[in-house]
Amino acid sequence: MTQRNGHLHLGAFLYPTGHHIAAWRHPHASADAGSSFAHYVQLAQAAEAAKFDLIFLADGSGTRGDDAQFLSRTAHSYVAQFEPITLLSALAAITRRIGLVGTASTSFNEPYHIARKFASLDHISGGRAGWNLVTSSSEHEARNFGFDEHLAHATRYERADEFADVVSGLWDSFDEDAFLRDKSSGRYFDPDKRHVLDHRGAFFNVRGPLNVARSPQGHPVTVQAGSSEAGKELAARTAEVIFTAQQTLDDAVAFYADVKGRMARHGRHPDSLKIMPGVMPIVGRTEAEARAKFDELQALIDPVVGLAMVSMLTGGFDLSAYPLDGPIPELPETNASKSRQTLMIELARRENLTIRELYRRIAGARGHWQLVGTPAQIADALEERFVHYGADGFNVMPALLPDSLNDFIELVLPELRRRGRFRSEYEGRTLRDHLGLARPASRYASREDGKFAVPCAAHAA
Amino acid sequence: MTQRNGHLHLGAFLYPTGHHIAAWRHPHASADAGSSFAHYVQLAQAAEAAKFDLIFLADGSGTRGDDAQFLSRTAHSYVAQFEPITLLSALAAITRRIGLVGTASTSFNEPYHIARKFASLDHISGGRAGWNLVTSSSEHEARNFGFDEHLAHATRYERADEFADVVSGLWDSFDEDAFLRDKSSGRYFDPDKRHVLDHRGAFFNVRGPLNVARSPQGHPVTVQAGSSEAGKELAARTAEVIFTAQQTLDDAVAFYADVKGRMARHGRHPDSLKIMPGVMPIVGRTEAEARAKFDELQALIDPVVGLAMVSMLTGGFDLSAYPLDGPIPELPETNASKSRQTLMIELARRENLTIRELYRRIAGARGHWQLVGTPAQIADALEERFVHYGADGFNVMPALLPDSLNDFIELVLPELRRRGRFRSEYEGRTLRDHLGLARPASRYASREDGKFAVPCAAHAA
């Protein structure tokens, strides 16, 4: 392997019963996990004891999809679970060191609310908050906020760009040393160190200042997930962590080089952004044990759910009249995402998959990188991506919770530690410390201050 | 005293360093309380150990006011403190029984987000969440959300009315027994027990359903604070707790009768709404000790802050050129709230107050009922309001935190308990249990079910 020193960064991407679509049906699953706080306490404390950089929560402001037959047979698609900001805030109180990253969409929120909630979470947690900035592409979410369809892709990203800028400006409302709290003179803060943003833009007019003191990390860590052209540009300009889906080493290396290559134009050093693809590892002491665990989950996939997922990915084509163990029929061209449809059909043709085999192939990890093997095999695969600059770390997506998280902690982490690839103790206290990210300067800091070297580009080297 | 049996309901209204405008300057105050989670943990656990019904957090989505000289000398006016939903969620994790009521405005929020966050908090806390529904009258908040001035009063209340209706509908998205979670059949929920709201109104189009299961209390408890005509009507129709400000027994009794009298028209029993006025008790073992505590706080009021408060209440008239210990000058008529201005001037004239005396009179409790005395005197005053049907309980506003809360717990609560007016143990587990509020029926429940007697009016007797 090529030389690349250092530790992987690891996130624990929590999802009620686990990321596998059928996880809730497993005998070990708590089927009510989506509204069991005790379940999340157990997961967060286990991830913290294992020294993960962060826990990660996805989000959707609405159920994804309308197909009642499909939805009623899955615990996925945001049918019914905790809202991430409330859940992370509660978990902040029962953890001490692990980072807390929550998703919130720029499409149906107001930047003042988002800036305020994540700054508040950063204070509550002593500097462990991260915001995963996403745009919403689901009309099911849009309809909960007065829109009949979702915003066009370009508009979503223009809005996201301005949203991120407003949030970052609001986080700079108070200088680090604005609060004097001098009881004898009666001066609570220095008005010269409090800044009115007065933003007027295409999407938002936001006066500010934010009514939260500058937060322990300066700014909560900004995470992004977009892999489109607009998404990569936004990430290169503003993200500090990217959560992405890459199936192959080649794709991962190309994506990594692409995004990091864009950063110089924005005055940023590549190390100020950590790329952490999602991975669903299913680990056993032997290959056979790993395979058996995987097969057990796969066998639980309800054909209704599997067919609905294939149908969604092929633009709505109904396969329910065809035999499950027969070949995929000719699919008509639809206006669904061409790349996804092509990918699916090519996969099925190339490997001669039956309908059941196809849905089993895609339903498990839902498009993410899936690894089934021994601790050494999984560590090899992760390390390979890391040393070839395909990843700075991984967002671990346990298939079944808590089992798969515990397996990863008990089997894979010791292997990664033996190889010098993962920490045994936290060295710092904040999420920025864990990720090796610099504290951002305030946009109001001037070079003359001598305190902040760079006025606007927070992460320039 | 007239006969009225039963316990008072008590809220602990937490405010960073306490409600007295000068509390942060007191030697016992933690001047950084607004961003000290440890401070709030201590307060919440003390209130829970004392068996308060609930803790209560106010809110403003922006700093109140523009006067930098005033603001920079006060820890009030939402200059910089935790956001309530994040803070309450965190406190949920370190408490077990006490209710958690947070304020969120209907003026600059979306009902889907509010319904979701409070339902999520209700799940996290095992049924202890309450939402204090307010409208925002501050243009300083409006400007953080794209408006140049705040909404007109009538529009605010029309919006609030529709907002409350949408939130309540979203909370009914899933029936109590919608989740089957039947691993063997693969049925996660019963689609017939999940309801699409499909709300289309003047202010909001919200399709639903909410992506949170029906919460432990059915609905989080709805609290309101409005005392205007529109506010009282909204409360009579939808509120379960009212937080109000009443200075005199007569005013309190009149307000109580007025609001409760409106409820029958909405098919509600008066007991399904608890009226809990704010009170700032300053208690000492002797009258002299109580007075000394109060005087100590009063002496800390910065003249700049005191004058600014008088100026705000008299419509912006600048008194800084007049001697502090001289009389109030003739004030010109302004377009400020006439009733407040009249009240202030009448008070000053009637009692021959100097400028300093006037600001000391109003700056402490900021318009709320203020009691300075021994435990017996304070218990007498509270009990008098209770037995005369001026209150069902009180939202206790500690002047200085944690001292005034601890004084109330150590001195007043034992006196109230001796009189049989306050619980020694929690009897139930939820906020509804503590307040004696029935669990609301779902709007989708039919009489034929036999499970819910009343289809739409949740609290009818």
Automatic annotation (TrEMBL), chains A, B:
It holds the Pfam family Bac_luciferase. Residues 24-392 form the Luciferase-like domain. It comes from the Bacteria. Gene3D superfamilies: Luciferase-like domain (3.20.20.30). The keyword Isomerase does not apply. InterPro entries: Diverse_substr_monoxygenases, Luciferase-like_dom, Luciferase-like_sf, NTA_MOA. Keywords: Flavoprotein, FMN, Monooxygenase, Oxidoreductase. Belongs to the NtaA/SnaA/DszA monooxygenase family. PANTHER family: ALKANESULFONATE MONOOXYGENASE-RELATED (PTHR30011), C2H2 FINGER DOMAIN TRANSCRIPTION FACTOR (EUROFUNG)-RELATED (PTHR30011:SF16). This is LLM class flavin-dependent oxidoreductase. The lineage of its organism: Bacteria, Pseudomonadati, Pseudomonadota, Betaproteobacteria, Burkholderiales.
